[in-house]
Amino acid sequence: MVQKLDDAQRDALLARFPGWTHEPKRDAITRQFKFDDFAQAFGFMASVAIIAEKMDHHPEWSNVYNRVDILLTTHDADGLSERDAKLAEAIEALL
Length: 95
Ligand code: HBI
Hints:
Largest sheet: 4 strands, antiparallel
Oligomer: single chain
Bound molecules: 7,8-dihydrobiopterin
Distance between the termini: 32 Å
Strand order of the largest sheet: 1-2-4-3
Order of helices and strands: HEEHEEH
Helix content: 40-55%
CATH architecture: 2-Layer Sandwich
Number of helices: 3
Shape: globular
CATH superfamily: Transcriptional coactivator/pterin dehydratase
Strand content: 15-25%
């Protein structure tokens, strides 16, 4: 079982990445990304996909034209884990 973040660790994660919001129902973090057009949005998704595959940790996400909505949680932990923090950090580094 993957270790779940405790409240202090989760709050530290949210403080580090202010663009993300905590979803208490899922114990997940979410963020919406807006790009100039679909091509930019999809390019971002392609970059995230490569990172996710390397990390073996995948987002729950949706795309509408230039918008990408990403939710991060760890299914194996049934909540937030260090893996989500690492993926959020890698996603932020793309911006
Ligand atoms: N991605 N978000 C998320 N949560 C997981 O638990 C997870 C994953 N990607 C791959 C993965 N687990 C595998 O390690 C397991 O399905 C074996």
